[in-house]
């Protein structure tokens, strides 16, 4: 497996040359990673986690890279693959840099969060057929169930009246992506960002057609702008088919006039 002199840096403090394994990851953070300036003091919020946060995790787990390095050096197939990529595509992949990049991208993908919203009156009505009872849960978790037909009808009519009003959504809970998405989804997000890096870092490489598409990660609201979290309506996250590899998780994006009341998230 080859190493390249392009990544050798002179350390003035130590007076020695060092092999810089942060070049790919730093490039990704500076040129590709999504980020948003959220105040006039120059503070930024990053998609997933910042490179500095990742570097702290990396430094706190020194055995991770050492173990990976031993496996890379012992794997003869990696050297062959490195040569094939260089010959067929024209890219000189440096695996000592590529591994930290992959670790960084994986951390970003896994730090993606979704805020699931409670059902609206319209959502409730769409799931009602012939209601026979209504259960109310008190603040102490005790429950009261009533079967009185007239009371049930009154409650349903109140819900119908609410459904005719403007749409106001309330937050239910926040979940991390790996709590709700399957491995195929996680891998597709990872593949998208790695492909984006290869395209940007190696602009002159031979290209192959691909259908990689960026999916939701940020929400955009009128007069507010971009928010680095995805709000998902009940009608989307509660649907029976949870195969998010075939369709977008957010089928019903927010429209003008719709509002979100952000309460205490579980």
Keywords:
single chain; 266 residues; alpha+beta; 10 helices; 41% helix; elongated
Measured distance between first and last alpha carbons: 48 Å
- Low-pLDDT parts are none
- Give a count of the beta strands, DSSP E runs of length 2 or more: 12
User: If you average the pLDDT, what whole number results?
Assistant: 77
Order of helices and strands: EEHEEHHHHEHEEHEHHEEEHE
How do the strands of the widest beta sheet line up side by side? 11-5-8-12
Strand content: 15-25%
Helicity level, as a percent range?
40-55%
Helix segment tally: 10
Label the structural class: alpha+beta
The backbone outline, from C-alpha atoms, is elongated
Taking all Cα atoms into account, the compactness measure Rg is: 25 Å
Largest sheet: 4 strands, mixed
Molecular structure report:
With 266 residues, the protein is an alpha+beta fold. Helix content is 41%, strand content 18%. It contains 10 helices and 12 strands. It has helices at 23-31, 51-59, 62-74, 76-88, 95-110, 121-127, 149-163, 177-180, 183-201, 234-237; strands at 8-11, 16-19, 35-37, 44-46, 113-117, 134-137, 143-146, 168-176, 219-221, 225-227, 230-232, 259-261. The strands form 5 sheets. A 4-stranded mixed sheet has the order 11-5-8-12. The protein has a two-stranded antiparallel ribbon with strand order 1-2. Strands 3-4 form a two-stranded antiparallel sheet. Strand 3 and strand 4 form a beta hairpin. The two termini are 48 Å apart. The model has no long low-confidence stretch (mean pLDDT 77).
